[in-house]
Structures are given as structure tokens and as C-alpha cells.
Amino acid sequence: MKNFTDDIGITGHLTIIKQFPNGEEEVVFDDHNIIVSGMGVGLSYMFNGSGSTSVLDYQIDRFQIGVSGPPAGGVTSAIQGLSGALNSVSEYGTGSNLFIEDASQIKGDNIVANQFFALIPANKITRIDDASVRYTLVVDEEACNGLTRDSNDMNINEIGLLMKNPTGNTGTNRSILVAYRTFSNIRKTNDFSLIFRWTLNF
Amino acid sequence: MRGEVEIWEGDKLIHKESNLLVNGAGEAIADMLTVSPSLSGISSASALLDTSNYTIQAISFGTDKVAFKNNAHFLDAAKGTLLSSVHATETVTAVSDVNQNTSSYNPVVSISSPPNPELSVLEPNCNVEATLGGVEVSSVFSGPDQNVNLIPKDYHRSELAALGSLSAVGASILGCFPDGSSLGGTDFSAFSGAGYAAGDVAFSGNYDSAVNEASSMDVSGFVNMIMSGSPGTTTGYAMSSTLSGLCVSGGADSTNSGIVEYSMLLGSGDVGFSNLYGGIYNMGLWTIDTKESRLAGNSPPYSFGPLDNPRKYKLFATKHLTKNLGYIQDNGTAAGAINYSDLTIKWRIHFT
């Protein structure tokens, strides 16, 4: 039941699980997330009728993983993008089961091209009660392994959920960040998969 | 996410307060986020992917449940005789026990139920208790716990057909918005006594409706949302026309502010006539309930119509007022009942 308030605060919770080939699981993170201003921007496009006319463009069907969190300015709802999002198909892992899309991203007043997003299969988006949706993001054993930049080993430590294409841009999707979270460094190897269980409550 | 309501009388702000976003708001967003993309390949269901199914599509008005058993909703033998004798086919409205020395009606109401985020209607248990020709009026038309719209002839003849020749009387009891001006509006009479005697008329008159002139309100009292003339490009949240229904505008800066404004002009006749039925203490914004619409046997797209509206609605936000929007007093020699002004309702939802 919602608190007795005049507004509804959209909230979220993220659990990160290491899953090993033998089925063993280890919870490495379990905490709330940050809903960023892009959620409101995307929803206002839909409710004022100025964006896409298809709800599919407002669905949260993609995520990004990054290696430079937390952002220098601190974690606030004003974040418009990850600090160090993976920027190629090869960084996400060419042998992984992730489907990567090269598209644009809305960051404030700017449209930034050639951003890389991992798509969330529809069967990993689950309604868990009247006003809660769970996204299960699977970074499999072959994904995001051995990341390096400038010859330095890089650990994954941030993740974001994005709305597909709220402005309804034709051609290339223009996605917008709606939820964000940093976490302690994880050096991803092919010894385990990472499962991000992310629940949004409206 | 939050909202606020402003009510303007001309250029005078008479009310400004936060609204209450109810659970239905979150449910509507969750509905949108989880609708299956595979529907795009099914011709009979692909219309469910249109955003209009998940955004605010209507506004409605109501009062407290006690009002539905009093005021113009009240029916006894004397009133039944009056209503059925005055006009056999047209609807008039009458209230009793008004002060002979005034020309303003002060409706009988109680305190509305407290604001509750679990509400799915404006005010629960708003039932009219009246029997016509041995038929319970509520069994013929069960309204959605708000001010309904059955006065127009076409509406009550269709919805109250089970009452036969008494359908106009039934409409008079159910209310709550008069005919449009092109149909001559709707007459009303206020009596000083309880017997509705011809010599007891304290004041009378005629109201006409803006919403029924535009055919923008369905029989259940939902005013349809029409898109602003140029959404997202207007400045200062300007609306193209609020006479035709509920308008929406995000303004040119909507991508930065995340504010969407809904606006509606509630005509003076609609305010005055509603006051005879208990006034206006509650308002609500509604999205389409796609599940209930389908369960009712309707297929998308759900095009609005005042009669046989295929849309079933889900409450998104409410505003409960402590003062009746229809409250009025005589002003010197000016009768209150014929001195109503148009009201403009501005309802802003802040998504950030």
C-alpha cells in the first residue's frame, strides 16, 4: 500500500547476483536505485502527446553497463548518462547472448550518437504486482569479460535502465536514461554470469 | 510525480491546492511498461499499443454520498407527480425546502470520505434511492459514483428505456448537467415547501450546458480529453480551446520541466445545475482501463462517444474540495442562482 501522500514517488530496487555454472548463486549487491529525471521527461512526452504514439517507444527495453561510476558530480536524479558506458559491441562481448543496439541517446538538450545498449528480452520484463515491474538483466558468462581501457583493467561498477525512444524519432532510436545505480567494482570473468534483478515501483 | 489543481473564475484564482495521485496512476504506467510488443503483429489488438490507452483521457466531477439521497436526487410522491405532470417528454429539475427569501440553493451534503490513494472512484457508495413505476432507478442505471449526465433527451431515452414513459423523470432524479443551449437548456424550479406546490416556487430559471453543447461528456459524467491544437509547441501552456472538453498541453518546455497541464472550462450552467444535485466537491482525472474495456466486450481502438462509450476508465488522480464549487449567494438584488460564472480548471501533473 502506498504511503498517504499527495504524490507518488517512483522507486526502484536492484539486486546483483553472481551465478556460477554449477548453479551456485552469490548476492553481491542489494539496495535501492536512483530514478533520474529522464523518467519524468519520457513520461511527459507520452502524456502531453508530443512524442511517439506507440507505447513500445516508452518501454524500458534496454540497459547500459559502465566502468567509471560513480559520476564525478555525485549520484543525483540529474544524471543523464553513465560515466563510462561500454562503447562497443566487443566490450559487451561478441560471444555473449546480449543483443547490442547502436543508437542515439538523449542527454539534456543533446542527442549523442553511437551509444551502445543491451536489449532486454520481453520475457525478462515481468509485472510482479499492480504497480511494480521487474527487469531481469542477464550478463552471461561470455559478456563484459576482461575489460581494459588505455591498457588498464576496468571493472564494471555502474548500470542504467533506458526508455527506448520517447520522442518517436524515425530511423535511429533516441533512448533516455530513467534509472541508475553504482556498485562496488566487479571484475567480470567467464567463471560466472551476473544477474541484475531490478524492480521499479510506480 | 505530483499534481496540483488551480480553479479560475475569469482571471481570478479561487483555488489552488495539491491533488492526490491514486494507485491507479502507478498501475497505468505499469500497464504501459508491460504491454506485449507482440501485439503489433495482431491486427485486432495492435491498437492497444497506442499511447492514448495509457494516458489521461477524461475528467469527472462528483460530490459526497449524502447528496445523492437529497437535493434534486430526492424523490417522493409529490415530486414524482410534479415532474411527470410538468412535461411528459422533457426533463425539468426541482429542489425543495429552499429559503423563500433567497434565490440561491444551498445543497444538502455531508463530509466527503477522506482522501485515500486506494480510491478507484471519486466517492464510494453514491447511490440514488428512488423508485419509479415500481422500478429501482439504480437498477436501471448504476452510475460510477459521480455526477452523471442523463438530462439530454437522447441520453435518458437510451439509458433509461426500462423506465418507459418515466425515463425523463428518472433523468431528472439522476441529473446532473443540463441540455446544451442549442436545445434550449433545462428548466429548474426551487420550492420553499416540501410539497412542490405551484405557489411555493421560490425561484426558477434555465441553465444550459457547455459540455453537452459540445457533446464532450458521456452519460456517466466523463468529459472526454481532446488534444490541444499544437501539443508540445505552445508556449505558456496555452490551450487551443477549453470549451470542447478536457484539453492537454505540455508547453514548449515540456522536455525540460516534465509538466503536463490539463485544462477544462466548466460552464456556468453546468456549475449551477450541478449545484442543485449536491454541488461539486470532487474531481478526478482518468485513464482508460484497457482490461475492463475489453472485458466489457469492446475492441480497441476505443473511440469516445457520449452514448455507448466503449471506454472504461481507471482513476489516476483526485481532488477533494472542502468548499462546493457551486456555492453561491445572492448579491444584493442579483439572484445567486442565475449569477454563476464559467470556471476554468487547470490541473498540472509534474512528472519530474
Kindly provide the radius of gyration of chain A, computed on alpha-carbon positions and rounded to a whole number of angstroms: 17 Å
Q: Which structural class do the helices and strands of chain B define?
A: alpha+beta
Helical percentage of chain A:
under 10%
Number of helices of chain B: 9
| Structural class estimated from helices and strands of chain A | mainly beta
Total discrete domains of chain A: 1
Total individual domains of chain B: 1
Major β-sheet strand ordering of chain B: 2-1-15-12-11-10-4-13-14-3
Side-by-side strand order of the widest sheet of chain A: 2-1-13-8-7
Which descriptors would you attach to this protein?
heterodimer; A: 202 residues; mainly beta; 5-stranded antiparallel sheet; 45% strand; globular; B: alpha+beta; 10-stranded mixed sheet; 3-stranded mixed sheet; 9 helices; 15 strands; 24% strand
Write structural notes for this entry:
- The complex is a heterodimer of chains A (202) and B (352).
- Helices cover 7% and strands 45% of the residues of chain A.
- Chain A has 202 residues and is mainly beta.
- Chain A has two helices and 13 strands.
- The radius of gyration of chain A is 17 Å and the shape is globular.
- The longest helix of chain A is centred in the N-terminal third of the chain and has 11 residues, at 37-47.
- The termini of chain A are close together.
- In chain A, the strands form three sheets. A five-stranded antiparallel sheet of chain A has the order 2-1-13-8-7, with no helix packed on it. In chain A, strands 4-6-5-12-11 form a five-stranded mixed barrel. Chain A has a two-stranded antiparallel sheet with strand order 9-10.
- Chain A has one domain (33-188).
- Chain B contains nine helices and 15 strands.
- In chain B, a hairpin with a 2-residue loop joins β1 (2-9) and β2 (12-18).
- Chains A and B meet through α1 and β7 of A and β3, α1 and α7 of B.
